[in-house]
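Reviewers of the previous submission asked for a worked example of the structure-prediction workflow described in the proposal, so we include one complete record here. The input consisted solely of the amino acid sequence. No template or homolog information was supplied to the procedure at any stage.
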Amino acid sequence: MNNGVYSNSTHYLTARGDLVVLDSSAIPRQGTRQTSSGTEERCEVTAAVEGLGEFKSRSYFVTHEGTAPAPGLFSILYGPTDEEVLIHDDSASMTDPDLVLQWDCVPSMADANVRWFLDERPLSEAEEGVAIERSGRRLIMAPGAARRLLAESPSTKRAAGGAKRQALTRRLECKADAGAGRLLDAKSAKIKVMRSPRLAPLPDTIYRMTGGRLELSCQDTRGATPQKGFRWTMNGDVMDRKDDPPGCGSH
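From that input alone, the workflow returned the following structure tokens.
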């Protein structure tokens, strides 16, 4: 495609850079081929990444079947999928644009109404740090909102008796309707929420006699074990069990 493509009534560019084509007639044609079902037209798509140049994808063959889908074909073409998200707690992360979470929900009709739900509770821009853009098709959560909505709830509190808290799973869903509510579809995803560790501080200085025993304990103050475990370093070097200095060990 020689012209730049932007989100409009015929195309949609997701936050991840995926291109969703809503109307195949809007694709510039660059040749045809004959198949058993008729004539298919060829198009090429070029992805451009700022600072890295352009990368041309493979050629795609498409069949044009009209500009509007039949009523029975209304669907969400692109929606949220199962994923893991890491929630940070430090104050610097609350304003880090790279930690903003974004999801897209693209129905086959550009004028469809799109709504978002978290664990069946409707989401709206009335929530601080939540934005819903592009006619409802994009949900955006600032880091603070993600921490509040995804990671903080009664179910995330430490259980009675000191049981370790497990990773939390949320259900994110988008629902789309068109044709005065006669056409409906929905897509949902499981969002596994992981919290960044919050380690208990170690003492600045410990005195021991030469040859004496020194034992240090590393703990997450939330009572959970990090998914990838703990890692110890000595003088900047990672201590692996097989590489522990004589008389030292990590477990």
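The longest strand covers residues 183-195. We consider this example representative of the routine output the project will generate in years two and three.
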